[in-house]
Amino acid sequence: MPISRRNLLRRIGAGVAATAVAPSLVEGSPAEEPGGRAMSVDASQLGRPIRLNRNENAYGPSRKTTATMREALNGAHRYPDTERAALREKIARVHNVAPEQVVLACGVGEILRMAVDAFTGPRKKLVEALPTFELIGLHAKRAGAEVVDVPLTKDYSHDLDAMLARSEAATGLVYICNPNNPTGTLTRRRQLETFALKLPETTQVLIDEAYHHYVGKSSDYASFIDRPVDDGRVIVARTFSTMYGLAGMRLGYAVASPQTARLLDSHRLPEDLNVVAAKAAVTALDDIEHVRESNRRNADDRQEFYNQANARMLRVIDSQTNFVMLNTNRPAAVIVEHFKKNDILVAPSSASFDMHIRVSLGTPAQMREFWRVWDLMPGHKMSM
């Protein structure tokens, strides 16, 4: 049944009206940070281009963390030896592990590169999902390793049986991104535990939990840091780029057995961290209220994205992250180019998902602009 433009606008308007009753989520409204402090946001300041392509926290770091960064600039002339040690100790306390189990790096991307250098290379294999975060595969190919891509299952989880079947003595590393990027979907915890136990003894498994903080309560999910397994081959990676809003600071870490952590650390870049990032991360870890508020905002923004997609009869993949895979019903490359011409950046299509785009959730004003530009698309038709 066709939808008239009038009915479409009525539906969209209903979504905007619903957003209006939640003033903490709308630019130009007196949003509050934890503690009741007012935070003004100008609806005219969308930022150009609107960046909905890198899975960043659109709201940025907390005020406490920002204040720490400003103060830390006073020590910019010093190497970060003390700050690095303090951050390592802090992460260890947060996760109830020994400091020698913590490996620091310039973002999760650097952790992935270190793992590739430590466990793969010529005549070695990396097994990964398809699609997944592509950086580790690129690192492995540069290292001369064979990359084995295993398509996701019909419910967009890792096909662990197929990955296990492709793993052998030459498989140095298996990569599991959970929730997965770009689909935003989960692979069940119990299945992952069983999978890890069945891997060859010489194979390490790297579980990338970059989007851990966005996952809602689920019996299917538990962090491998917060609920570890007794297996020294499991490495868990985390980042400060997403929930903590510190993507520009380039800071991530891994938690592993002491022996594995030492091997990873031997492949890190010398003097990789900076003073500002290290101090900011310590403050961010303490600011629990900011994490809760960012999570709440993201859940609201994600639901509104679903609402707007439904109003246009578009399908999405249910996400546990701060981004959503949207089925565009046409070649994704055309959609990406349309948005680029309108000063909005969205992620290009992934392997086997050439009709989808990955949209990082922006602020409410940015997302309203996203949908306005979507409705400008040539040949845009609505049907039911």
Explain what you see.
- The chain has 384 residues and is of the alpha/beta class.
- The protein has 2 domains: 142 residues, Aspartate Aminotransferase, domain 1 (Alpha-Beta Complex), CATH 3.90.1150; 223 residues, Type I PLP-dependent aspartate aminotransferase-like (Major domain) (Aspartate Aminotransferase, domain 2).
- The strands form 4 sheets. The protein has a 7-stranded mixed β-sheet with strand order 4-10-9-8-7-5-6, with helices on both faces. Strands 11-12-14 form a 3-stranded antiparallel β-sheet.
- The longest helix has 24 residues.
- The chain is globular and about 55 Å long.
- The N terminus is likely disordered.
